[in-house]
C-alpha cells in the first residue's frame, strides 16, 4: 500500500515564500488526512507543492508505489464552466491524458463506473456550462478518480455541496480509501467533517505547519483558539463522536 | 484498484458516447463533402463561360481540351479555389487554437492585431516602396506583410511568457495592437498618392485573385506541418478549456503547451494574410461554427474548424464571383456577408451550447 511523508516542505512564488516547514509522519494508503487552516493559509499551495506543480525546498517521500510522482493527483477547486464539453467528455479527457486518440471500451466502462459511484450518471450528457457549482464539483471529483491515482489531493471538494452530498462524498471517499489503499488528503473548512472522516490532520496557518497528527489529538480547544480565533468546545455527539461547538469569536 | 463501490455497471453512457462521436464524424464528413462541392462550383465559375463538362474534362483529362481552357482552369481558377481552401483552413485553425489557449471567444488573428500588422506592412511597401527585408520588388508587399504579422504575433507570444501576464492581458495587448497598426495605416493612407491609396484599400479588403501554385503550396505546407502537431496534443489542448489549474493537475505543462501553440498559430495566421490581405471573419467565426457543431473535444473540434474555415472561404469565393456577373468582388468584404446569416442561425438555434 502506498505511503508518503513530507519533510521540510516549502513553496515559493518568485521571491515570495508561500509555505515553509511542513513535516509529517508517514501518511499511509487507506487513510484520509485533513488539511485545515484559515483562508489563504497555504493549503492549496501545499497540495500544489506535493503534486510538483510549484517548486520549493523539502522532499515528498513516496514508498510502495511503482509509478513515481505521476501517481499523485491534485484536484483543484473547480473545473471550467465555459468549456463546450459534456460531463462525459470532460471525464474522458481526464482519463485519456497522455494517451492516443482511440477510446477503448475499458475507458468508457471506467467513466460509467465513476459517474455511477458518485451518482451523477444522470448528468453525463449535460454541458459543463449547464451545471451548478456543486454539480461541477462532483464532476471534478470524477475527473480525479478516473485517473486512478494512488495519492489524491482534494482541494475543498465539498465547499459547494449541500449537506447531504457533503456527507455522501466524504463517506464514499473514506470507503474508497480503505478499499483501494489510496492515500487521500482533503482540504476542509468544516472541522466536524475532519473529526468524523479523517484519520490524520495537518494544520496550516500563515504559510507554516502549525500541527500534524491524529485528528483527535490535533483538533483541540487550544488549537481552535490559537489558529481560528474562536472560543469552542469539543463535545461528544449522540453517537459518541467528537463535535466542535463554537461559542464565540475572539475579537 | 477498483473505483466503484457499486456493482460493475454496463457502459450505458459509453454507448451513448459512441453514438455521439459517430454523429460528429458523419457531420465532419458531410462538411468535407460540401467543401468538395464548393471547390467544384468555384472552379466552374468565372468571367469566361465554360460548360461544367468542359471544366471536368480539363480537370481529369487535360490533354483533351484546348490550351486556353487548360490554362484558365489549371493556372487561374484552381489556384484561386485551392487558395480559398488553404487560407480559410489556416485562419480558422489559428483562430480555434487562439481561442483555446487564451480562453477567449474573441481571440482570432484579426482581433489580436496580426491582420492589422500585416496590412500596415503591406501599406509600407505599396505607399513608400519600403522593403522591411530587401528582396525582389515583386515579393516586397507579401514579405512586408508577413514580417509585420510575425512581429505582432511574436510580440503577443513573448508578452505571454512574461511572469504575471494573464490571458486577459494578452487579449488587451492584441486590441492595443489593432488600434496602433490601424492608426499607422491611416497615417500612411493620408500621405499616399491616389494610386497607392487605391492599392492599399484593395489589399486591405482581401483578395484571392493573386493566388499562385507557390502560394497555395506554402500555405498548404504550413497546415500540413501544424495540424498534426495540434492533433498530437489534442487531449491536452482540450484540457486547457477546463482552466490552467485543472490542466496542470492532469500533468500538462500548461506554459509550454501555450507557447508551442502560439508559435504555430503565428505561422498559420501570418502567412495567409501576407498572401491574400485582410480576411477577418473566418478566423473568428470558423471555430465558433465548428464548436457549435461538434463541441470542444479537439479530436473533432480541430478537423471541424479546419473544414468550416475552408468551406466558409470557398463558399465566399463562389459568392464573390456570382453577385456581379463577370466581376470578382473582394473576398474580405463578402466573407462577413456570407458568414453572418449562417452564424446567426447557429447562435439562435444552439444558445445553450455556445461559448
TrEMBL record, chain A:
Belongs to the ABC transporter superfamily. The keyword Zinc applies. It holds the Pfam family ABC_tran. Keywords: ATP-binding, Ion transport, Nucleotide-binding, Transport, Zinc, Zinc transport. The keyword Repeat does not apply. This is ABC transporter ATP-binding protein. InterPro entries: AAA+_ATPase (IPR003593), ABC_transporter-like_ATP-bd (IPR003439), ABC_transporter-like_CS (IPR017871), Metal_Ion_Import_ABC (IPR050153), P-loop_NTPase (IPR027417). Gene3D superfamilies: P-loop containing nucleotide triphosphate hydrolases. SMART domains: AAA. The lineage of its organism: Bacteria, Pseudomonadati, Pseudomonadota, Alphaproteobacteria, Hyphomicrobiales. GO terms for molecular function: ATP binding. Residues 4-231 form the ABC transporter domain. It comes from the Bacteria.
Automatic annotation (TrEMBL), chain B:
Its main location: membrane. This is Iron ABC transporter permease. It comes from the Bacteria. CDD domains: TM_ABC_iron-siderophores_like. The keyword Cell membrane applies. It is found in: Cell membrane. The chain crosses the membrane at residues 25-45, 76-98, 110-133, 139-158, 170-192, 212-231, 264-285, 300-320, 327-348. Keywords: Cell membrane, Membrane, Transmembrane, Transmembrane helix, Transport. The keyword Chloroplast does not apply. Belongs to the binding-protein-dependent transport system permease family. FecCD subfamily. It is a multi-pass membrane protein. SUPFAM superfamilies: ABC transporter involved in vitamin B12 uptake, BtuC. The lineage of its organism: Bacteria, Pseudomonadati, Pseudomonadota, Alphaproteobacteria, Hyphomicrobiales.
Amino acid at each position: 500500500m502506498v505511503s508518503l511523508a513530507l519533510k521540510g516542505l516549502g513553496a515559493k512564488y518568485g521571491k515570495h515564500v508561500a509555505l515553509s516547514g511542513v513535516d509529517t509522519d508517514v501518511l499511509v494508503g487507506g487513510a484520509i488526512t485533513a488539511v485545515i487552516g484559515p483562508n489563504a493559509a497555504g493549503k492549496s499551495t501545499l497540495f500544489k507543492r506535493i503534486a510538483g506543480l510549484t517548486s520549493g525546498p523539502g522532499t515528498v517521500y513516496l514508498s510502495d508505489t511503482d509509478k513515481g510522482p505521476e501517481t499523485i493527483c491534485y484536484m483543484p477547486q473547480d473545473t471550467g464552466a465555459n468549456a463546450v464539453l459534456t460531463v462525459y467528455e470532460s471525464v474522458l479527457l481526464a482519463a485519456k491524458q497522455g494517451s492516443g486518440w482511440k477510446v477503448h471500451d475499458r475507458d468508457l466502462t471506467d467513466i460509467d463506473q465513476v459517474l455511477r459511484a458518485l451518482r451523477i450518471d444522470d448528468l453525463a450528457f449535460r454541458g459543463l456550462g449547464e451545471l451548478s457549482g456543486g454539480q461541477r464539483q462532483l464532476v471534478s471529483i470524477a475527473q480525479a478518480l478516473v485517473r486512478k491515482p494512488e495519492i489524491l489531493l482534494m482541494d475543498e471538494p465539498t465547499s459547494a455541496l449541500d449537506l447531504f452530498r457533503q456527507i455522501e462524498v466524504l463517506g464514499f471517499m473514506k470507503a474508497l480509501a480503505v478499499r483501494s489503499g489510496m492515500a487521500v488528503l482533503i482540504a476542509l473548512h468544516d472541522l466536524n467533517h475532519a473529526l468524523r472522516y479523517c484519520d490524520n490532520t495537518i494544520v496550516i496557518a500563515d504559510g507554516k505547519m502549525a500541527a500534524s497528527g491524529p485528528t483527535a489529538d490535533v483538533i483541540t480547544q487550544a488549537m481552535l483558539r490559537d489558529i481560528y480565533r474562536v472560543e469552542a468546545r469539543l463535545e461528544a455527539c449522540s453517537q459518541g463522536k467528537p463535535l466542535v461547538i463554537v461559542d464565540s469569536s475572539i475579537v | 484498484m477498483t473505483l466503484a463501490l457499486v456493482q460493475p455497471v454496463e457502459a450505458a453512457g459509453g454507448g451513448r458516447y459512441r453514438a455521439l462521436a459517430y454523429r460528429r464524424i458523419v457531420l465532419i464528413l458531410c462538411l468535407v463533402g460540401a467543401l468538395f462541392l464548393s471547390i467544384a462550383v468555384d472552379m466552374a465559375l468565372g468571367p469566361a463561360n465554360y460548360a461544367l463538362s468542359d471544366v471536368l474534362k480539363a480537370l481529369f483529362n487535360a490533354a483533351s481540351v484546348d490550351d486556353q481552357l487548360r490554362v484558365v482552369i489549371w493556372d487561374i481558377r484552381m489556384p484561386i479555389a485551392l487558395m480559398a481552401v488553404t487560407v480559410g483552413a489556416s485562419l480558422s485553425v489559428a483562430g480555434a487554437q487562439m481561442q483555446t489557449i487564451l480562453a477567449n471567444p474573441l481571440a482570432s488573428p484579426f482581433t489580436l492585431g496580426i491582420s492589422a500588422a500585416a496590412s500596415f506592412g503591406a501599406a509600407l511597401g505599396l505607399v513608400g516602396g519600403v522593403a522591411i527585408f530587401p528582396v525582389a520588388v515583386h515579393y516586397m508587399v507579401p514579405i512586408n506583410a508577413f514580417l509585420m504579422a510575425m512581429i505582432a504575433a511574436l510580440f503577443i507570444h513573448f508578452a505571454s511568457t512574461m511572469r504575471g501576464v494573464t490571458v486577459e492581458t494578452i487579449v488587451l495587448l492584441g486590441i492595443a495592437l489593432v488600434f496602433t497598426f490601424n492608426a499607422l495605416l491611416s497615417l500612411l493612407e493620408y500621405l499616399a498618392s491616389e494610386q497607392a491609396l487605391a492599392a492599399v484599400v484593395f489589399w486591405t479588403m482581401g483578395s484571392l485573385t493573386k493566388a499562385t501554385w507557390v502560394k497555395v503550396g506554402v500555405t498548404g505546407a504550413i497546415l500540413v506541418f501544424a495540424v498534426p502537431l495540434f492533433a498530437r496534443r489534442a487531449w491536452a489542448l482540450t484540457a486547457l478549456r477546463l482552466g490552467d489549474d485543472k490542466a496542470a493537475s492532469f500533468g500538462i505543462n500548461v506554459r509550454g503547451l501555450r507557447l508551442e501553440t502560439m508559435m504555430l498559430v503565428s505561422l498559420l495566421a501570418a502567412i495567409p494574410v501576407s498572401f491574400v490581405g485582410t480576411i477577418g471573419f473566418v478566423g473568428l467565426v470558423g471555430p465558433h461554427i465548428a464548436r457549435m457543431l461538434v463541441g470542444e473535444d479537439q479530436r473533432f473540434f480541430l478537423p471541424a474548424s479546419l473544414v468550416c474555415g475552408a468551406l466558409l472561404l470557398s463558399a465566399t469565393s463562389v459568392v464573390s464571383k456570382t453577385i456581379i456577373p463577370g466581376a470578382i468582388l473582394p473576398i474580405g468584404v463578402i466573407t462577413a456577408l456570407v458568414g453572418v446569416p449562417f452564424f446567426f442561425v447557429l447562435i439562435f438555434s444552439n444558445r445553450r451550447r455556445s461559448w
